[in-house]
Amino acid sequence: MQYADVTERFIAARYPRASVAVVAGSTARGERTTTSDIDLLLLGDALFEDEHKTSEAATHVFEGEVFEVFAYTANGFDEWAARGVADHRPVIATMLVEGIAVCDDGRLAELRRAWTAVLDAGPALSDHESAFRRYMVADALDDLRDATDPFERQVIASLLFQRTAELMLLRAGRWIATGKWWPRRLRSMSTERALGLSRPLLDGDYGLFATRVEEELNRAGGRVQDGFVR
């Protein structure tokens, strides 16, 4: 990896107690742009000077590179990774599994085996959560169809896209995402359905976009409104 040397120097200077270090994100995938930072996952039982501290998310500039650091003790990692799984966005577990190891005290392979099994199993969507998400999509969909102000339509459509994308991915047993990962995750699930949802949104055709959302809502089980207890 091109950035291994500067990463090793950064760890030695800022987190010398780290026993496992994994570079993730665009740097690990070889897809860096001019604004890319270096996503760095660090593990170590004696990582912090404060013995009661179990986690830290911090941004550092070092030798002209921006490091986005996610640092944990073993217990801290388990806690925060479990939270990500519960929220259907296992960011740090994915970093652990898919990133490139910079240093390893021997525990990384077993950690990767355990968390790979969790990631491969996919998200667990309960019936109540599925109903709640359909309720939220239906609510925003009605707001979009009623909106006449262009600014309001744009904001509601963006919110509706996110809610619909989350429902589509979770119903398909896929983890959800944020930002640029929305289109990537949707395309990996179904290029045709991703285009069907995105094309009218990009064209500003909110009527057709609403129709596509309704189709996805019906695919997921239909509207939830009357009598639904949140």
List the helices and strands and how they pair.
Blueprint: H1 4-14, E1 20-24, H2 25-29, E2 38-43, E3 55-62, E4 65-72, H3 74-86, H4 91-98, E5 100-103, H5 108-121, H6 127-146, H7 150-171, H8 181-189, H9 191-203, H10 206-219
Parallel strand pairs: 2-4
Antiparallel strand pairs: 1-2, 1-5, 3-4
Helix pairs in contact: 4-5, 6-7, 6-10, 7-8, 7-10, 8-9, 9-10
Characterization of the model:
With 230 residues, the chain is an alpha+beta fold. The protein folds into two domains: 4-121, 2-Layer Sandwich (Beta Polymerase, domain 2), CATH 3.30.460; 127-219, no CATH class. The protein is built from ten helices and five strands. A hairpin with a 2-residue loop joins β3 (55-62) and β4. The N and C termini lie far apart (48 Å). One of its GO terms (molecular function) is nucleotidyltransferase activity. InterPro entries: NT_sf, Polymerase_NTP_transf_dom. This is Polymerase nucleotidyl transferase domain-containing protein. It holds the Pfam family NTP_transf_2. Residues 13-49 form the Polymerase nucleotidyl transferase domain.
> Which class do the helix and strand fractions yield?
alpha+beta
Number of domains: 2
* Proportion in β-strands: 5-15%
As laid out across the biggest beta sheet, the strand order is 3-4-2-1-5
Name of the level-1 CATH class of the largest domain: Alpha Beta
Give the SSE order as H and E letters: HEHEEEHHEHHHHHH
Mean pLDDT: 94
- Computed over alpha carbons, the radius of gyration is 21 Å
CATH superfamily of the largest domain: Beta Polymerase, domain 2
Total count of strands: 5
Coarse morphology: elongated
| Terminal-residue CA separation | 48 Å
Count of helical regions: 10
CATH architecture of the largest domain: 2-Layer Sandwich
In this structure, how is the largest beta sheet organized? 5 strands, mixed
Do you know the CATH topology of the largest domain?
Beta Polymerase, domain 2
Share of residues in helices: 55-70%
pLDDT < 50 stretches: none
